[in-house]
Amino acid sequence: MSHTAHIPSHRKPRQRASKSALRAGVAGGFLSTIAVAGAAGPAQAEPVTQTIEMPTIASNFSAAAAASAQATQQIALDMENQADQDAAAEKAAKAAKKAHAEAVRKDEAKKKAEAAAKKAKAEAEAKERAERASRSTERTTLSASTGSSGSSSSGSTSSGSSASTPSSSSNLSGSAASIVAFAKAQVGDAYVSGGTGPNAWDCSGLVQAAYRTAGIDLPRVSQAQSTYGTQVSLDNLQPGDILYWGGAGSAYHVAIYVGGGQFVGAQNSSTGTVQRSMDYDRPTGAVRVL
Fold this sequence. Notes:
This protein is of the alpha+beta class.
């Protein structure tokens, strides 16, 4: 035995023959392939003559996005228009409701006014009928009393007991009674400036018409009436005397004294024709025509 036999060897073990052969075969095949490809490459290569177009995905996507945005904008616009239409319809409905309520209120007010006017007219007509009836009664009573007075005067004259009494005395009494009765019968008539009857008077128009019933034609205006006749004291009045307010010849109002401290006159548009006490509006003076 060698003296180095016990020392281990540092050489690598030999690889198996199969593995070496396999590696040699793979390397040889690879090199062969490269050699073949290198030899055949230049002879078999052909130039590319056809261009392959790729689909225009990006442009189609842009068009679709634009169409979608336009559709969204149109939908938003339609919704906005619809909202405006709904708001307008609601506003119109509220206005129509308000107008209807106002029309109903006006109609009710009109009906109430018509009812009130109708009632007032009926009351006025009833009052006028009552006044006419009263006037008719007064005229009838006056006619009866005048007739009795005339009969008494005729009987006294025929008996000769008062033959010296002038016949004008009975005529004077009858004229005054006629004037007073006519004036009283017009109480309640309206006052109208320039009115001469039969249902509307001014102050001098009423006095003139009353005296006309006794066959006396007075001047038309109060200034002339205040000087037509004899001036008399207010303490010595007789029924039928003409009362005046203002100066004689410049009077602005006239009326008829009807006895008992009362007068009848067409006063103004507020009161119409009235019978009042002389204390209500003291006259300035008086004239006696009868």
